[in-house]
Design a protein that fits this description.
The chain has helices at about 5-25, 30-89. With about 90 residues, the chain is mainly alpha-helical.
């Protein structure tokens, strides 16, 4: 999955979750105090989940950057070796 697809998926999941949670809370037959408590709990839960997703995305990004950096380093060393061999001939 490419980075734009991953972003779109995460964004869609978050928006869908918020809409679904809001609809479930507002359509449930509860008192105002219970409803506010449920909204507070859901908000806290979604906030924790969002932090977790962002942390995972950051970790994946760091791993990908590390991999790309190592790949570039390997490619650069190979090119330098080729250039050195050509100069030596």
């Amino acid at each position: 999955m490419t980075m734009p697809e991953t972003r779109g998926t995460i964004k869609g999941a978050l928006i869908g979750g918020v809409i679904g949670a809001a609809a479930a809370l507002l359509l449930a037959p509860k008192s105002g105090k219970e409803l506010r408590g449920d909204i507070r709990d859901r908000y806290s839960s979604m906030q924790d989940r969002t932090k977790q997703l962002l942390s995972e995305a950051g970790n994946r990004t760091r791993e990908m950057a590390k991999h790309v950096g190592q790949s570039w380093k390997t490619d650069a060393k190979a090119e330098m070796k080729d250039d050195t061999e050509q100069v030596a001939q």
